[in-house]
Amino acid sequence: MMAILSLSMAGCQKDNLMFDKTDVNSNIPMRYSVSGTVYTTFLSDESELDSFIDRVFAIVNDGYTVTIIGNGQRGIKEKKEITFTTTIESEAKAWAASMTLLGYSVQVNYNKSTGVYTCIATL
Prior knowledge:
By secondary structure, the protein is of the alpha+beta class.
């Protein structure tokens, strides 16, 4: 599965970073930003969140910064920011998915020279 996703992402160029076509029957919109352009994809369940996170990290591994735009929590007056760094991709993916489910916007980038994933969650 990862090999197929990697191959499908390898052909992406900066101007065409949208993920797979959206399914009109899905009902959970997921917004994300790549290089300042905002896209929306639709998820039908939590298992699709894992696939979405995999696609986000494929783009991140190509050198782009991706922000998953959370739904936030109304009534919060003080901005809250949490930073997580790791060299283990699976840890970064799990953390990003968890914070996204909590309503945070999560920015993810990868430094190829140091091998460090930096994830910043903002509410």
